[in-house]
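Cross-check.
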Amino acid sequence: MTEIESAWAQIAEEGRAKPGWHARRVRLNSSCDIRAALLCPGETPAVLFSVSAQAIPHGAEYPDCVGFTVEAQPIVPGPTGSVRLCLVLNEPRYRDVFGTLAEDVASVVANASGDSHAVRLLLGRLHTWQRFVTEYGTGSLSEEAQTGLVAELMFLETRMLPVVPADVAVRSWRGPYGDPHDMELPGHSFEIKASTGRDPATFRVSNLDQLEPGANRPLTLVHVLLDGNSESGPTLPEMVHRLRAAIAATDPAASIDFDASLIAAGYMDAHARFYTERRYLQRSERWFDVREEFPRLTRATVPLGVGEASYTVRLADCAAFERPAGIGTDDMNEIAA
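Predicted model, tokenized:
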């Protein structure tokens, strides 16, 4: 049980029925006053963040979606007073998700250097959770989505972290945010495609931007063949745990960004039990330079009137563009440009 969940349980056991907030402070080392709370009557779970009124930017946008709401309540009125930002569950069916959300947000805000920083971290993380709840609701990832996420995490662990700092590697992972390419470094882009099965003949491209290099930024397509029924490979939660620990060991701040990317990708620790049956082993990894004549569709090459398209590409027709797998010294000079 997390610290937030434990505090809610302790408040509930006290059986106080008086209307209003019943709260218990958590994250005692935080510069921001953070409290787990139940709103009575009804014992609705919430987390309360108390900050100075001056810390809240003018026109601040508070996330509001199915699952949770955020409301600002004055504690001491006036521009020099204080405000309580109330993160409250608003749909009982999102109770499990909200517990994970609350613990994650409190952990992030607890690292703030002051009230203004705390508000920025709070709103930023809640907007990430808003995207998650809107897209995934209470559901877990499909098998296809799990496979794609595993391939991206493997690339991050085996190819990126050994050659670039943890914060650079984590920030480069753009797939969860809907960017054109899965990995975006200053001097190079990588698009990761995953397949399962013994001998895949094709891979799917989901839009017209995925195989279009950016300006002055070469693009490499990485095709990963995975065995999703391995007896020896890690599960998705095991992979997440291993990567999280490796990143935190060298850069704790980067681990916070990594968790935000996992949320954006649709992964939540509360759903880990749904991902324990499949173990993944990488059977092969092939790298291709995406350049002129590479088999692809782009916005510049489709007929006028075609707004969007998804399609498949035959791996056999990519053979002429294959390059050795791995990021070498020459690549690093290009990537870091």
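DSSP finds eight helices and 13 strands in the chain. The helical segments are 3-14, 95-109, 115-136, 143-160, 166-172, 236-250, 252-264, 329-335. Passed to J.P. for a second look.
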